[in-house]
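Tutorial sheet, problem 5. The two components below are modelled jointly, 338 residues in total.
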Amino acid sequence: MRIGVVTFPDSNSDVDALNALAVAGVEPVSLWHESPDLQGVAGIILPGGFAYGDYLRAGVIARFSPVMRGVSDFAAKGGYVLGICNGFQVLAESRLVPGALLRNRSLRFACKLVAIKPERLDSPFTHKATGAPLRIPIAHGEGCYYAADATLDELERDGQVLFRYVRPDGEPALEPDDPANPNGSLRAIAGVCNAAGNVAGLMPHPERMSESILGSDDGMQLIGSFVESARAWETGR
Amino acid sequence: MSEFHYAVNVLPKPGILDPQGRAVEQSLPHLNVTTVSRVRVGRRVELTVTADAESEARRVVDGLAQELLSNPLIEAYTVELLEATSSVVSTADSAAKVTRS
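Model answer (structure tokens):
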């Protein structure tokens, strides 16, 4: 099975994502931003980085790139799309997942290990997770998740909140100034999915914790879930 | 055809966290400024639209402001017309310019 990773100008975690997919036992395929041709992949990762220099707003210029036409069509057909960090920002700007990523409350670029916890274990992106907090790195300047209060209520009600930042005791770091909430995200939200459940974005980098040589393979719980979902989707077509 | 020169001013919507505005505000005591509050930091984009009429140019700017220059979820924008200039250039003039360059 082939899974694609899009490379935009200034993507920098695309190679890490391709590696994580190889570790997961699938054939990684590099997709170039200038072509809407997805080369028959069964799933797509939008990787971390600073697509198009993050000019204007993180992710917005990438939204209008040729490859994103293909990605939107793919998502509309039910294909699985995972946006990591800058990829999450691209998905949010493309309105493929709800909400927006604001400048970190601290105004600082945050680069460190954080703890996140899957909110549910029955989603296509978390079904292989143990449910314990995952130690996964973040590296971003604009990761403060925002949506209007009413939208946040809907997301929680409909199970679209996939990950929250958690404190050392495993409880969500709900206060925006909690040190375990690295960017001030509302309701400690680290990742969400669309209403259909096939497009998800998160700020932390699971691909950078995808094998023990990197310090931990916590991230493989998420990459593995995504890969399995893509496999089931391709088989069912 | 005329050229319409615009500025699009984009600001965080009221109530949306604006850490840059807050950082500027927090620097004010260091300048011994005590009379300034409610600082908001946004972005200004200037652009020129070629169109037959201002109403047509304005539609283009509004569309861009909504789709690209602002994120309506978190930002509001205003459009200012800065200058309008008529640019009737004859074909001969254009050709001459191209030849010279």
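Marking note: The first strand of chain B starts at residue 2 and ends at 12. Full credit if you identified this.
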